[in-house]
């Protein structure tokens, strides 16, 4: 279970760069409004997937067409507080954006950093 004061990393993924930038700005504004320390949004490298197909399956082998799919990623770091979590749960997120929460907490017994990954994937296919 998350303890107040733990750090949270919010990872956003989307094919639409404008949608991911808008939701990242909304999350940052909500967290700042609640008084949380916010770092980001930090852009991560864009993953490009290129698919090449033949235009005609039976002739003109040199005639090809390429399609590209880009996955844009952002990460936002913040301090965990009950107010900020309640405020984040009220946000409306577009279907094109996938969100993952990574909670980093310090264990008092071992004093090492444990990463507890809680993924909340909002994907509608």
From TrEMBL:
Keyword Ribosomal protein: yes
GO cellular component: ribosome
Keywords of the record: Ribonucleoprotein, Ribosomal protein
Keyword 4Fe-4S: no
Pfam family, one: Ribosomal_S10
Superkingdom, natural source: Bacteria
Domain Small ribosomal subunit protein uS10: 9-102
InterPro entries: Ribosomal_uS10, Ribosomal_uS10_dom, Ribosomal_uS10_dom_sf
PANTHER family with a match to the protein in the record: 30S RIBOSOMAL PROTEIN S10 FAMILY MEMBER
Subunit structure: Part of the 30S ribosomal subunit.
NCBIfam families per the UniProt record, alphabetical: PRK00596.1, rpsJ_bact
Function statement: Involved in the binding of tRNA to the ribosomes.
Entry similarity comment: Belongs to the universal ribosomal protein uS10 family.
Full protein name: Small ribosomal subunit protein uS10
Protein's gene: rpsJ
């Amino acid at each position: 279970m998350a303890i107040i004061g733990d750090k949270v990393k919010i990872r956003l993924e989307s094919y639409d760069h404008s949608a991911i930038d808008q939701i990242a700005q909304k999350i940052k504004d909500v967290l700042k409004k609640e008084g949380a320390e916010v770092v980001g949004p930090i852009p991560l490298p864009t993953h490009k997937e290129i698919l090449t197909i033949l235009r005609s399956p039976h002739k003109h082998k040199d005639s090809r067409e390429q399609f590209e799919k880009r996955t844009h990623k952002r990460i936002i770091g913040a301090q965990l507080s009950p107010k900020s979590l309640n405020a984040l749960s009220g946000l409306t997120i577009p279907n094109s954006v996938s969100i993952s929460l990574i909670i980093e907490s310090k264990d008092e017994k071992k004093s090492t950093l444990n990463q507890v990954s809680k993924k909340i994937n909002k994907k509608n296919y």
